[in-house]
Description:
Blueprint: E1 2-7, H1 14-24, E2 27-30, H2 31-37, H3 44-53, H4 66-73, H5 77-104, E3 109-113, E4 128-133, H6 136-147, H7 151-160, H8 164-168, E5 173-176, H9 181-193
Amino acid sequence: MVVIGVTGNIGSGKSTVCQILARLGARVVDADRLGHEAYKPHSQIWRELVELFGRDIVKPDEEIDRQKLGQIVFSDRNALAQLNQIVHPRAYRLAKERIAACRRRGVEVVAVEATLLIEAGWRDLVDRVWLVVAPQAVIVQRVKEQQGLGQLQILARLKSQMPAEEKAKHADAVIYNDGSLNGLESRVTELWEALHIV
């Protein structure tokens, strides 16, 4: 089994790359979603987050308000580091479990989508790192449309993440996502074929 870590900063197009990989036959594990699963109301992590950041981050239905939490952590490096210390180990364990389950089922290729794959020290979970990059102007436009965030919020999130140039030093392949969807599909398909899956 081959495990590909698909990483890149916010708005780079990781999810689109993973959708293409899924069509080609990969099983996708979304690390961000795993992290959010760990936030379930009244779970251990939920309690730690509420204790650390206050009841203001809790919505009436007891779910964590990720937008409010984001406003806190993306404007304060220490708060972001504290959040990551709480969430990353749990998300790592969940990702490891999902990968192991895929291996038991005979899955040939798993794509782990993780924004902070490199920063969180998850390199040992994957066999290859594919980095998705896009120009800042394209990222800002995409995130505005997809998540409804303002430009300052987007730039704050980008600033909190390792620059793409630094991530590229850890990558086995770089996927430039600044053109058409067809171009992106061609590049991902080319990398897929290079895996030589029987």
